[in-house]
Structure formats: C-alpha cells, structure tokens
Specification:
Keywords: Membrane, Transmembrane, Transmembrane helix. By secondary structure, the protein is mostly helical. Helix content is 82%, strand content 0%.
C-alpha cells in the first residue's frame, strides 16, 4: 500500500530519509519560533500595553513554547523515528485510518489559511495598522504605526502567516504521525493474529514460529512508539487543556467588557482546535490501549 503523501513529508522532516531538505525546514521552524517566543516575552516584560493585549501575547508565547518543545522532541527522537520508519515501510494501514489522516491534513490546511485570510480581511475593512491590532502578534505592533502603505501590510502579514503555518504544521505532524503509527500497529497485529489462527487450524509449526517472531518485532516497534509519543502527547494534552482554560477566562472577561471582543473571537477558534486535538489523542489512545490488551492475550 503506498504511503500517504503527508506522512512522507513529515517523516522527511524527522531526518528518516537520505534527503535532508525537509530536515533543514525543521531547523528553520525552530529558529523562527524561538525568535517569536523571545519577542513575545520581551513584549510582555518591557512594553506597557492594555491587559487584553498582554493576555493575548501570553497565549501567543504559550503557543510558541509548545511548538519549540514539539520540534525539540522530534529532533531528539530522530533515531527512533528512523527505526519506526524502517519497520513500517513494507506495511500498510487500515483504509479508514488513511482517510482520517487525509481529513486531518485537510483540516489543518483549511484552518491555517482561515487564520491568515481573516486578519487580512479585517485589516482591509479597517484600513489601518496600529498598536494592539488583535489579529497579529502584539510584539509586531510595539510602535504606533498608522499607514496605508501596502508594503508594510504585506511584510506584517507575511511574518504573521509564517507563525500560523508553522503552528499548524507542527499540530498536523503529531496528529497524523500518531494516527499513522497506531494504524501500522493495528494492521500488523491483525495480520499476526490471523497467521496464528491459521497455524492452529493447520497445525503448522513453521507458521506459528514465524508469527511469534513477527510478534516480537512488533513489540519492539510498540515500545519505540511509546518512547517517541509519550512526552509529545502528554505535553499536547496539557497545553490544550491550559489553552482552553485561558481562552474561557478571556471570554468571561470579554462579556464583562474588560477585553476586546475581537481578540476573543480568534481565541475561541483556537480553543475549538484545542478540543479537536484532545479528542484525537483520547480516541486513538483508547485504540492503543485496546491493542495492548490484545498483546496480553497472545
């Protein structure tokens, strides 16, 4: 079964292949994200802004720290990713897993474009750039700029768009690769179970030995998978829970009139994305738990 294109791209970003071009993209993402993190931190510490802008900047800094940790985990576990890649090359995944990976990839593509297009529309309608523009990172607006210059608009939203796309690339990476490797595990385990049943029915000792060997290899793969995904998924669950909680706080403050309601709208959209991510990890984590119970049977 041919591997999904998105998975191929993401595995190249881990350095699993001989081509290093996508791995360099990972390093580029890390440097850009580190800049955004430092800039947002400096903005909170050294610039006097409204409470709503400072809270929004805090959310931005939280996102950047999450991305930095994700990239760090991926680089640190590069060898483990290579091992899983070698094991999964000749294997397939269930058809429903492939369709769900395609859906999630499309979701992140649409969501990232919406987070970029909507701010541009907002700016065109209001025709100005000023301190506290709620649809850009606040640290890009620390100087009181008010202009109709399209070049400034273009530069401003180019920088903003890079940060949005990097965030969604990283979210898409962990979501799709986790589902993909769970699919490989499920598909391979189903094959082994079928082989064992046939060996019992046919009383075929060689086939049984082959199934045992394959099961041992799968167990090594499963242990490697736990090493690779335990920390990123735990971090993602914690981050999404904290982010959703902060967003809820902002909504309450907006209702009371203390915070710009326009800022809250983009936070609500991000909060919905956080719920989607938590749902993905919870559902496929339960699938992984069911597969572990099958291990115990055999």
């Amino acid at each position: 079964m041919p591997r999904i294109d998105a998975i191929n791209v993401f595995l190249q970003m881990t350095g699993c292949t001989d081509s290093k071009r996508m791995l360099y993209l990972t390093y580029f993402e890390f440097l850009i994200t580190l800049y955004y993190f430092i800039a947002s931190y400096v903005s909170i510490i050294y610039y006097e802004q409204s409470v709503s802008i400072q809270l929004f900047t805090l959310l931005c800094m939280l996102i950047e720290s999450y991305i930095l940790l994700n990239i760090t985990f991926r680089i640190y576990h590069k060898n483990q990713f290579r091992e899983m890649d070698q094991y999964s090359k000749q294997l397939g995944i269930p058809d429903d897993y492939q369709s769900k990976i395609n859906i999630i990839t499309m979701y992140h593509l649409i969501a990232s474009n919406m987070f970029v297009i909507f701010p541009v529309t907002y700016t065109i309608l209001y025709d100005s750039v000023r301190v506290g523009d709620p649809f850009t990172f606040p640290f890009l607006d620390v100087l009181p700029i008010k202009t109709r210059n399209l070049v400034i608009y273009a530069c401003k939203y180019f920088v903003y768009a890079i940060s949005v796309y990097i965030a969604h690339i990283e979210l898409c990476f962990i979501n799709t690769t986790f589902i993909y490797y769970v699919g490989v595990l499920k598909y391979r385990l189903e094959t082994i179970v079928q082989t064992i049943r046939e060996a019992v029915v046919d009383n075929d000792e060689q086939k049984m030995k082959y199934a045992v060997i394959q099961h041992q290899r799968l167990l090594i793969y499963f242990n490697t998978m736990k090493i690779v995904f335990t920390k990123p998924i735990l971090q993602s669950m914690s981050f999404n829970a904290i982010y959703f909680g902060l967003t809820t706080t902002l909504v309450i403050q907006a209702i009371r009139g203390y915070i710009n309601q326009t800022i809250v709208s983009i936070c609500i959209a991000s909060g919905i994305a956080a719920i989607i991510n938590i749902t993905i990890y919870t559902f496929y984590g339960s699938v992984l738990l069911d597969l572990v119970s099958i291990y115990l049977i055999f």
